[in-house]
Amino acid sequence: MGQVGLDSFTDSECLALLERTPDPIDDRTLICPDERGEVNRWSQGLAEVFEVVPFDPMGHDLPPRVPAEPITFSDQFWNEGEYSVCKDIFHEEPFLSAVMKLPAASGRVAREALSNAGERVFRPDEVQLRMATVFTHVEQPTWEFESPMEEGRELYGCIEVHRRRFPIRLYRGACDAKALYSYDLRVLGPMLRLELIAAHELGHAIDALTGDLSSRPLAAETRATVYASFLAQCSARTMRTFFLEAARAITSPLSAQRRRKAQLVCMARRWHTFEQYLASARAGWTSSEPRLSPGFSSAFACASPAADGAQASLSVHECPVRTRQGR
Ligand SMILES: [Zn+2]
């Protein structure tokens, strides 16, 4: 098979392959928590593509359910390997300008933050140092198992920026979000829908820390979504890189291995398509938005109607929390 690239297979070959074996990582049961806030650790697809044993091969055990992990994004900046994959994305406008308005984390805070990274960061750049400020101000997102309705619209996520540390709530419906304001999410898989909403809340945190709280709530929602698109784009690129590297590691000419390699390349292509979509969807945005209304500082509800629905923004004073069971 020789060198593989994203163009090694035709669209129809990839469609056929992915229909038989869908992307094993972008799987709802791995990504989307159930009503107890838990996900399946394994899927049959993971076993097939990565040749791992998913659970007791005798079939006695059910696949283990584990608490869904919070979505954090900090490794995108603090893990040098991950950061290097996405560095050019984070140095694009308007993300770069927004980040450069953030106060740089103090030396101590930055050192603590960076030492938590899996791979040591030796010479963090300005973007890494300033994003450390965001991550030290937000709490780990927590799952809420119902999706509350506000003004007839479903809430997907919420952040309270008037607290010393900002709590972030993600609501169960986020996995099935069809749109986030004017962004049509239906072309994305569950992982990026969820990540885009979690990252959107971080976008509000960036605004809160730069004092960039627009008098027009919708402008703030647009900005938060645009910032989010950079973080989600990084996730898409990381996944594309992961699948492509896994494909390149397969050198065996055996037909089963060739098929597995083809699956991995096609999965890499799928993430590449998502990455391109995220980059193009934000292209119409401009940064000349009205600035600062001192009274506008509460929680952001970040609900969304269907893609073709109304554009009105919501803001609530506190993020709705309906149930605490299952923690
Ligand atoms: Zn929002």
In short:
By secondary structure, this protein is α+β, with helices and mostly antiparallel strands. The protein has two domains: 214 residues, no CATH class; 49 residues, no CATH class.
Kindly state the number of beta strands: 11
The shape, in one word, is globular
The low-confidence runs, each spanning 5 or more residues with pLDDT under 50, are 287-298, 306-311
- The number of helices is 11
Largest sheet: 5 strands, mixed
Instruction: Please tell me the total number of domains.
Output: 2
Order of helices and strands: HHEHEHHHHHEEEEEEEHHHEE
Structural class computed from helices and strand pairing: alpha+beta
Rg result = 20 Å
Give the ligands present. zinc ion
Q: What fraction of the residues are assigned to beta strands by DSSP?
A: 5-15%
> Gap between N and C termini, in Å?
49 Å
What is the averaged pLDDT score?
81
Helicity range: 40-55%
Instruction: Give the strand line-up of the largest sheet.
Output: 3-7-6-10-11
Describe this structure in words.
A 5-stranded mixed β-sheet has the order 3-7-6-10-11, with helices on one face. A two-stranded antiparallel ribbon has the order 1-2. A two-stranded antiparallel sheet has the order 4-5. The model is unreliable at 287-298 and 306-311 (pLDDT under 50). Helices cover 44% and strands 9% of the residues. The chain is α+β, with helices and mostly antiparallel strands and 327 residues long. It starts with 10 loop residues before the first helix and ends in an 11-residue tail after the last strand. It contains 11 helices and 11 strands. The structure holds zinc ion. Zinc ion (ZN) binds at residues 200, 204, 221, 224, 300, 302.
